[in-house]
Amino acid sequence: AKGELIEEVCVIIAHHHHPGTDETINYQCLYDADLIVNLEENQKESPSEPEKLKKTVESAFLTESGRNLAGKVLL
Question: What is the pLDDT of residue 54?
């Protein structure tokens, strides 16, 4: 792989739980996918109130696609 791609992957891995203000679309997609998985696992272990989960879905995701998919999976 090209050095530029390797560098981007390393940056994504290093801080995929702590987004900055200017993240690449690749980062945003990974962040949203990871968040969906984490929220889904948390719901199985200790379910949140539906309204609280809805607010999280509306506010925590970085992409519209992430919000849409989270709504389908979690709500």
Answer: 98
The distance of Cα 29 from the centroid of its chain, to the nearest Å, equals: 7
Q: Fill in the amino acid letter for 4.
A: E
Distance, CA of 46 to CA of 69 (rounded, Å)? 21
**Distance in angstroms (rounded) separating the CA atoms of residues 35 and 62:** 10
Contact 35, 74 (CB under 8 A): no
For residue 7, give the 3-state DSSP assignment. helix
Predicted confidence (pLDDT) per residue in 41-58, tens digit: 999 999 999 999 999 999
Quickly list DSSP for 10-37: HHHHHTTTS--SS--HHHHHHHHHHHHH
pLDDT digits (tens, 9 = 90+) for 55-69: 999 999 999 999 999
CA distance 29 to 3: 21
